[in-house]
Design a protein that fits this description.
4 strands; single chain; two-stranded antiparallel sheet; globular; two-stranded antiparallel ribbon; binds zinc ion; mainly alpha; 7% strand
Length: 183
Amino acid sequence: MLFAHDTELALRGAAALVNTAPTLPTDTDDLATVEDLERFVAEWEWTGSRAHDHAELEAVRALRPRLRRLWTVDTDGAAALVNELLADARALPQLVRHGEWTWHLHATPPEAPLATRMAVEAAMAMVDVIRADELGRLRTCAGDDCEDAVVDLSKNRSKRYCDGGCANRAHVAAYRRRRATTG
Ligand SMILES: [Zn+2]
Ligand SMILES: [Zn+2]
């Protein structure tokens, strides 16, 4: 494992949140409605307080472009962004133990708004990434016409594509090209 389990989960969750936003003109927004947010929250097993209203949805949607920038800036820029996210949320790291989890970090209380908790969880994970000088793990999918945020957590730094089928499409295209040149 490259990072702690909760860090890796938070990074994958942040990428998934970023990728709900439409990146191309033909793309749809996967967080368009309150129902979409319910689905996302259930899928990523977010606990804690919820408002279940439009303001909550808008706050989460507004977080997406801020997190997206982590995939495009250099390490100094990422550090500044992370500090800004933590300061905005008045994050206060505390060791907690609950359920089946052993001691781990929370930097927001469970009653903090969902978007705040999402921002701080992503920022705290990025603290680990930046301290380890591993920002290069955050990539954009190498697929044609795909701009999905990718987190490469592989040992040999080999992940180039998102999980949306781009690797498959690239392999098929390469195969067709080979066949075309060899007749
Ligand atoms: Zn916890
Ligand atoms: Zn892709």
